Amino acid sequence: MRLCSCGFANPDDAMRCAACGGALSHESAGDTLLLEDVRSGEVVRIPAPGGILGRAGDFSPDLFSPRVSGVHAVVAVDSEGRWTIEHTGRNASAVERGGVWSDLRCGAPQPLFGGEMLKLADMVFRVQVGTQAAVADGAAVESDAQDAPAETAWSVRCPVCGTEYAVEGPEGRIAACAFCKDPLDARQIARVAARAMSGR
Hints:
The protein is mainly beta. It contains 2 helices and 15 strands.
């Protein structure tokens, strides 16, 4: 699976994103990893080469809840210049790509391309990868989308956890979120209108 920066999961052999038309690349994406807490909006900024996430970690330790371990996960840039995350804590960690959540395990680093959702114990973060200059301006990671077709891509963002889903057009809806299981959440989610993805 090749994950686009818009959050859409594409087949491994795809060269362009089926949702936004942006060019797909697994080359080095950037020297800064951003984790945005979906509840508070606070951002954990992690420069390369990475370090420890958690209440005793290297980056914003006071931001993490009591359920997050002191040393909960390790993020690093691998030999190919890609960000990875490895679970090291006692409470669960998981990453969401294309609406599917996968548990993280000790000793099995997983790649982070940007666009994923990351769960550390009871906290959920949006993942963004970029260069120092881009994230300093709050800009999203830019791919080779300048030469992509000028088509409008539409998405629906879950109002509970922030997971984004590609939909067909402005009338598109989602009936449920893969992460939010409460029936009251499902009713709220089904009412969310699609929005045009910016910068595509």
